[in-house]
Amino acid sequence: MSNGPAGHVARSTVRPNSETTRRTPMRTFLHTDDGVTIDSVYDPGAVVYDNSRPPAGDLVFVVAHGFTGDVDKPHVRRVAEAFTRQGAVVTFSFRGHGASGGRSTVGDREVLDLAAAVRWARGLGHARVVTVGFSMGGSVVLRHAAIYGENGETAPARGAHTDAVVSVSAPARWYYRGTPHMRRLHWLVTRPEGRLVGRYGFRTRIHHRDWDPVPMSPVEAVPRIAPTPLLIVHGDRDGYFPLDHPRMLAQAAGDHGELWLEPGMGHAEHAAGDALLERIGHWAVSQGG
User: Fold this and answer.
1) Which is nearest to 104 in space by CA: 135, 147, 59?
2) Gap between the Cα atoms of 60 and 122, Å rounded
3) Rounded distance, CA 22 to CA 47, Å?
4) What strand order describes the sheet that includes 257-262?
5) Distance of CA 229 to CAs 27, 81, 255, 279, Å?
6) What's the pTM?
7) Which uninterrupted H or E stretch holds 168?
8) What digits encode the pLDDT tens for the residues 105-126?
């Protein structure tokens, strides 16, 4: 592993459009704008060209995992493996998760982690970036696209912008406690004994401070994403966030957003089957050219 600024951590000899066979993954630590080290993996994938879809050799998926996930968790690796059939994949551990530095802010400063991963992906030569987030990561990809997009607060010229966004199983609003799963999660985040469980039970180090200021909510972020293509995916058996959350997001998106309500699907990466991941991959391929 090597250290350095985001997007300039390791010089790659990979040319994304040059081959159609699986190549060796690369792992390194990135540095965010606020100085946190982020454990990250690049998988060039194996893109096969055919006449049924546009060429995807320049496409990279940047995957943002859910709370208590990390780059080495089997469910995150399964998602990455599925997307390598459509393009290259960057996965990373959010701050406070796994081998990354810092402490989790549960969706606030994690936007900086995603920005570092996107810059790295572009630095490796990929012209099209699709961010795909699950649960907490789903809220992060929405806020990232709003902040770093054409209508955002940060100039896209810095290389951290995305070309399409997929948010899976994301909340629409903060501080939701309407389900037993979310009440347990709030205990994990807000109570000292809960944070100990997070550290030793889930390899997740959670910051003890409350948000100050409270970050823009996902539903507030969504209108700022246009004209970047947006896909919202949610299961009708999600035990964390009921269907009013994706419907709020879709309503806020208006005509530029697409909503998939998946029958029988539960929550986030664990519930996203291979067929759904393949459909998401095809949607991503179709968004650019």
Assistant:
1) 135
2) 9
3) 8
4) 26-31, 37-43, 88-92, 59-64, 128-134, 164-168, 230-235, 257-262
5) 29, 23, 10, 15
6) 0.87
7) strand 164-168
8) 999 999 999 999 999 999 999 9
